[in-house]
Amino acid sequence: MKKRILVFCVILSLSFLMYNCQEQSETEQDTAIPVKVEAVALGELVQTLHYSSDIEAEFEVKVFSKIPDRIEKFYVDDGDYLKKGDPIARIYATTIEQGVRQAEAGLVAAKAQTANATVEYERANRLFQENAMSKQQYDMIKTQFEAAKAGLEQAESAVKTANSMYSDATVAAPISGIVGKRYYEEGDMANPAMPLVTIVQMNKVKIIFDAAEQDLGRLKPGQEARVYVKSYPDEYFKGRVIKISPILDPLTRMAEVEVMVNNADGRLKPGMFGSVDVIVGKLSDVIVVPRYAVIEHTTLERIGNQDEIVKNYYVFVTVDSTAFQKKLDVEYVNHVAVAVRDGIDVGDNLVIQGQNALRDSIKVIVVKEDQSL
Question: Is CATH 1.10.287.470 correct for 94-167?
């Protein structure tokens, strides 16, 4: 009887131990954190310098009226294409028109006076050669003749000036391009200090930004630049650095840099706000991890004899359902990816989702790519 009781107790203890082990296993599985991973691989990373500024037309010309009078007619509006010499506006020029008529009348009178003086001078010259006229009379007629010729030249110049002023009443395009902005309406009073219109050439656009002194050693004319605008968030526009200012602003210690972008389709508009990535190098055959998989810690550390802000980069990798935190030795960082010199190896299972809930050596469950966390 005692033997049976002993066997029963042993069986009961074993059952209790098996139950506890199973429960503990289920508890550990329930507390494991789901994550998604991808294998670490080699790749290439473009090194860039990032800037931002407004987009401008390659050429922009403001057209003014030389005549301060009322605008009789506008021939163009915003967005119209103009060829060089095409009329833009007509200004009332009644006073100038009257001046033209007076100058033309003065020219007719000067021609008649000159013709009469020429006849008198030729007659006097003949008489003087025959000793039939005194030197005093001859000199007087000669002076009148020369004065008549000078008056004729003056009258001709007055006509040219009057016609030039009258032609200014029709304001013409100095360059070919598109009317970017019209500042007046018909009937407004033109002010020589304010432009009538702005004409732009937009087949190319430029973006001018200020580069810090420490960047200038990496910037060179001819480097490729990528321009991003909010209107087209999923693409970039390729351009080139064409100009770097030879001097720095003494107040800001920055230099102007100009990037030119082809814009044959006209999608980039002057006035848009653009972001520019200037490509200054390329890293090949390096470990590249996405920026969103990296955890960044910023600390204040004592380096040498001064305090410096240091940014450390960490990731998690999984080994046999356990996540381990790894500190990265970073070679280069941009807003998309991180180039890693050391800290992880090719083939490691890098946690790309769920890493913010992890700590070192915690249990994880790897979720398939098509499943949600």
Answer: yes
